[in-house]
Design goal:
hydrolase; AB_hydrolase_fold; AB_hydrolase_1
Length: 282
């Protein structure tokens, strides 16, 4: 574990593997800490010859956390955090592997700092600045559940765990039965690493400063899209839109996978991501 400074913000990071190996920087989605990246996936990628970095976004885990409702940063600020991490580790360029919002951020970094990016792996992501017909998006059932934040008692640990576990369940695909016990255990680990778990939902108020309309089409890096065929949160049409809009992009659609990293599919995801990154080391 290592703390990295990004201006006035401190970002908690963790590395796997050998620093001299090509780097893969993992960028998690909204409200998620580094624990959203399964440790087995990180170790698998490191075992395939990569220096793997994961980190806590602002307002998650052990990174700088502001009180609920008091954050004013933008998505561009989270993109700047990525560059600060690369700088701190002395990484000239890296494959960026982003999940959901992390994939959105990865596209932004590739456009703002093209020389720092070797390639992109975009998991369960949407296109940055989509300018076509409306894409299938977050279902009403998910928003209905989030409305419970207004009355959630954050001092009631069991209620908090149940609320967050329901989010995991709403994101799960049909490829395997939802494991509530495993979900609750992971959430316990998440809660143990932050003094203000409610602050993770500061991400819901984030905006962008710049106009990114259509900009994802300008990405010139090699891109691999990985998307669950049964993603209930950002349906697979989003991943297909990225792959169709970026010249030369590849796409892997995984049946039974939702907006998640199912254990039985981790080895396949690691193998495909590593193969993509290995081909793009130069």
């Amino acid at each position: 574990m290592r703390m990295v400074s990004a201006g006035d913000v401190r970002i908690a990071t963790q590395s796997f593997g050998t620093a001299s190996d090509p780097a893969i920087l993992l960028i998690m989605g909204a409200t998620a800490s580094m624990l959203g990246w399964p440790e087995t996936l990180c170790e698998d990628l490191a075992g395939r010859g990569f220096f793997v970095l994961r980190f806590d976004h602002r307002d998650t885990g052990q990174s700088t956390t502001l009180p609920p409702g008091q954050a004013s940063y933008t998505v561009e600020d989270l993109a700047a955090d990525v560059i600060a991490i690369l700088d701190a580790y002395g990484v000239e360029n890296a494959t960026l592997m982003g999940m959901s919002l992390g994939g959105y951020i990865a596209q932004m970094v590739a456009l703002q700092h093209p020389q720092r990016v070797r390639s992109l792996v975009l998991v369960a992501a949407e296109p940055l600045g989509w300018d076509g017909p409306a894409l299938p998006n977050i279902p009403q059932e998910f928003f209905d559940h989030l409305s419970g934040l207004q009355t959630l008692d954050w001092s009631d640990r069991d209620a908090v765990i149940s609320f967050l576990a329901r989010i995991d369940e709403l994101c799960a695909g049909p490829g395997q039965p939802f494991d509530a016990v495993q979900a609750r255990a992971r959430i316990e680990r998440v809660l143990a690493r932050t003094d203000s778990p409610a602050s993770m939902f500061n991400h819901a108020s984030m905006t962008v400063r710049e106009d990114w309309t259509g900009r994802f089409r300008e990405i010139a890096h090699p891109v691999l899209v990985i998307h669950g065929e049964d993603d209930p949160l950002l349906p697979v049409g989003n991943g297909r839109a990225i792959a169709e809009g970026i010249d030369g992009a590849e796409i892997l659609v995984i049946a039974g996978m939702g907006h998640e990293f199912p254990d039985p599919m981790l080895a396949r995801i690691a193998e495909r991501a590593a193969t993509h990154a290995q081909l793009r080391q130069r």
